[in-house]
Design goal:
heterodimer, A: 19 helices, elongated, B: mainly alpha, globular
């Protein structure tokens, strides 16, 4: 052994390079060859995995559509495990779990995906739907908004608009009309020129309790397409909600819808127009006649109810007395006085509103008077 | 001229430490490549044997046929390739001066691919450790290295292979020190770190830097949850004892059978395994896709309980009958199922806010691993590295310590030592390692 060396110097491979160096070079060569082989194998295995994952995903989606949720979860779980980079598999897996009622697992699956795709609108939307289905309203709204503020490709802006519509519908369903209106204003600013999205936005404004903006949007649609039945019906509904019964009757008539609620609205608008003593362009005599007719009708309705349902007396006793007094000929003469006239209209409207459910379903005139009371509330105060 | 030549020789001649460092890097790379190739080969074999959607006939027949072939080779050609490979590696390190014949890593690779790819409920990490250690030893013998250095190269190869098998460089180093060497203060820390890093770099450049499981960020939601995690640790300890004692008892029974049946014993396990796979194919092989589902909370309570129990039985049969494969992956599988089951119950009935069942699955994995493999530090770091989530570390440590303590209290001899003892091999209590 040479001094300071642990290796016997009697090697014969070379005079200049020791055996250990040659061995190292061979090992490095083997490592490089091994790397190439392993890399090629890994790529081939990855391709196979991706192919298998596609098969499992297709199977899972078929199970999901057929409602076989356990099988869908199994298949989609496999697809997700085989190809972890394909976000669609994770989303489908989360959807399947949510459909099976396992919202905790669905949330976990999507949160896992969100770790790597925090701004993905699809992932945030999936989470929002899961939270919405489990009644976690603040979280659902947060994820809907994260989805809206996510990274949207320019060609998918229509999807973004539809997502905002979904959020608005959710906010309306959860009785948050002011937040829904705030989103609607953003939606309105982004509306394309086509009638469809405008009609949808108008419908949502109406549902959110803003009939004025709804009517405005319907009218804009009617400017470009005066025959649009949907716009007329929508405008009729909006006008009806605003208490503009003349416009409601006109639009509902042109809309031509035979839906039960539209027919009912049309009938009520007609009745309100016929009964309203405060309608424009009426002679004073006609106004008084309508009021007297209203007093007489409500007086009869209240009396009939009290005869049939004595338990309603606490709610109706005052109204009965006031209506009876107003029905006297001497009282009717005082309706020439504007103040007394307005008091009379308010009295009839209040009595119509006070009719309890126990009295049975109110007739058309009573309902018309309720509507008149609501529409004229500002005037009658 | 003579002086010049002598100088060249002097310069080219690597000094001992430099050569060992270079070999450490090369061994790390080779062990990493071997571990990755082993994983891929198992995947290919499984796909080849079972296809994408195996029939009942395949599920039943493949484990039998594969075990029959493996049994003959294990009895006649590769007798050292049975079981996990970690006890054999420890024995080679402590008793054989780090000498592992070349046929051992080759045999382990082939038999591991055959048995794990053929559906047996065993893991690939133990065999990877033995293959890595074997590659290291073969390289060391070929150079050749002096005895101390050759011995030192074995845990280096083991760490490299485990780092690549799990994509867990830190846990691999700790495992090499905690389990293979048995001394956390061993002077081999630097070498194992170098090999582990080299191996993981290779593995990541081939497979990408993906954690073994993708989990959402879990955390301790309420302080009272620690009690629930404590209960999970106790359950983990109990399950670990059941697993270890049953495994030793069943393996003992197989070992007591006449020697002429040795070649057929894996096939006996294959028959039982085939029957199990017809009913519960989810326990086939490594089963990490189901661990992934448990971590995501995607499995129902009854499925979790079923998989936990069936996997335990399937692993006992596969391992005890002499097939090649380890207990790392099964312990993670059983732990994940048990943990998710506990988590589901806690989620439903706890009067305080709780984390999702996936968090309990994660802690359950660590607890079972700590209880069965008896390497609590490795367990903590491994769970941290395979999930890349440190929010859950405190509950994990609580559960791990309880599982470890219970397992140690009622099963004083660690599983790997007990397995060696069954083979008539006794490891020294205090490992003798000279500083390198």
């Amino acid at each position: 052994m040479s001094e300071g060396s642990w290796y016997p110097s009697s090697f014969t491979l070379s005079r200049f390079v020791h055996r250990e160096i040659i061995v190292l070079v061979i090992l490095v060569g083997a490592a490089i060859a091994g790397f190439i082989v392993t890399k090629a194998s890994a790529d081939a295995a990855r391709e196979l995995r991706v192919r298998d994952a596609r098969t499992w995903h297709a199977r899972g989606m078929a199970h999901l559509e057929a409602g076989r949720l356990d099988e869908a979860i199994e298949a989609l779980g496999r697809a997700r495990a085989l190809d972890r980079d394909e976000r669609e598999y994770h989303l489908a897996f989360g959807r399947a779990l949510a459909a099976a009622g396992n919202t905790t697992a669905a949330r976990q699956a999507l949160l896992t995906l969100r770790e790597t795709h925090p701004e993905d609108p699809g992932v945030n939307f999936g989470l929002a739907e899961v939270e919405a289905s489990s009644g976690r309203v603040p979280e659902a709204v947060r994820f809907y908004q994260s989805a809206l503020h996510g990274a949207w490709e320019p060609e998918r802006l229509d999807d973004r608009r539809r997502l905002r519509v979904r959020l608005i519908e959710y906010l309306i369903a959860e009785d948050m009309p002011s937040r829904a209106t705030a989103q609607l204003l953003l939606l309105e600013a982004d509306l394309p020129a086509e009638a469809g999205p405008r009609l949808e936005a108008a419908r949502l404004f109406l549902a959110a309790g803003d009939p004025s903006r709804a009517l405005d949007l319907y009218r804009r649609v009617l400017e470009s397409d005066p025959q649009s039945a949907e716009a007329h019906t929508g405008a009729g509904r909006a006008a009806f909600a605003m208490g503009d019964f003349a416009a409601a009757r006109r639009h509902l008539g042109r809309g031509g819808s035979h839906d039960a609620d539209v027919e009912e609205m049309r009938e009520l608008a007609q009745a309100a127009l016929a009964a309203d003593p405060l309608e424009v362009r009426l002679s004073p005599a006609e106004r008084r006649r309508r009021l007297a007719a209203g007093v007489s009708h409500l007086s009869g309705a209240v009396a009939a109810c009290l005869a049939r349902v004595p338990q309603a007396r606490p709610a109706l006793a005052d109204h009965e007395a006031a209506l009876r007094a107003a029905a006297q000929p001497s009282a009717a003469r005082t309706f020439a006085d504007p103040e007394a006239f307005e008091s009379g209209v308010a009295l009839v409207a209040r009595a119509a509103a006070a009719m309890p459910d126990a009295c049975g379903p109110p007739d058309v005139t009573t309902r018309a008077w309720r509507l008149i009371g609501r529409a004229r509330a500002g005037q009658l105060q | 001229m003579k002086r010049l030549t002598a100088l060249s020789v002097q310069q080219l001649r690597l000094r001992e430490n430099q050569l060992f460092l270079a070999l450490t890097i090369v061994v790390g790379i080779l062990a990493g490549l071997a571990a990755v190739l082993f994983t891929l080969a198992i995947e290919w074999a499984s796909r080849l044997f079972f296809g994408i959607d195996p029939t009942a006939a395949r599920l039943f027949l493949v484990p039998i046929a594969v075990s029959l072939a493996a049994g003959i080779m294990l009895a006649r050609v590769f007798p050292e390739a049975r079981g996990s490979g970690i006890p054999q590696t420890e024995a080679a390190f402590h008793l054989d001066g780090g000498v592992i014949p070349a046929r051992v890593p080759i045999g382990k690779f082939l038999m591991g691919v055959l048995c794990i790819g053929g559906g047996h409920s065993v893991g690939r990490e133990g065999p990877s450790v033995q293959i890595g250690a074997g590659v290291a030893s073969v390289v060391g013998q070929w150079v050749p290295l002096p005895p101390e250095r050759l011995k030192a190269l074995v845990p280096v190869g083991a760490a490299g292979a485990l780092a690549a098998a799990f994509n867990t460089p830190v846990a691999a180093v700790i495992f090499a020190l905690e389990e293979v060497i048995g001394d956390m203060n061993a002077p081999l820390l630097g070498s194992t770190v170098v090999a582990s890093v080299a191996s993981v770099m290779v593995e990541r450049s081939i497979l990408g830097n993906e954690p073994l499981f993708r989990v959402p960020p879990y955390q301790l939601v309420h302080p009272a949850e620690l009690a629930a995690y404590g209960l999970l640790g106790i359950l983990g300890g109990v399950l670990a004892i059941i697993f270890c004692k049953s495994l030793l008892a069943l393996r003992g029974a197989f070992l007591r059978m006449p020697a002429r049946t040795r070649a057929l014993q894996p096939a006996m396990g294959g028959v039982a395994m085939g029957a199990i796979l017809i009913a519960v194919p989810q326990v086939m092989g490594v089963g990490y896709e189901y661990v992934d589902q448990a971590l995501s909370g995607g499995l129902a309570l009854r499925v979790l309980v079923l998989l936990c129990l069936v996997k335990l039985v399937a692993t006992l049969i596969s391992y005890a009958s002499g097939n090649a494969g380890g207990v790392f992956a099964p312990s993670l599988f059983i732990g994940a199922m048990a943990g998710a089951a506990v988590g589901t119950l806690v989620n439903q009935y706890a009067p305080f806010p709780t984390a999702a069942p996936g968090a309990y699955a994660l802690v359950g994995m660590g607890a079972l691993f700590a209880g069965i493999v008896r390497a609590p530090l490795t367990s903590v770091f491994m769970i941290f590295e395979i999930t890349q989530d440190y929010e859950i570390l405190v509950p994990l440590m609580v559960a791990n310590l309880l599982a470890f303590w219970i397992s140690k209290r009622y099963q004083p001899v660690p599983l790997y030592r007990a397995l060696l003892r069954q083979d008539g091999i006794e490891l020294p209590h205090a490992p003798e390692i000279r500083p390198v």
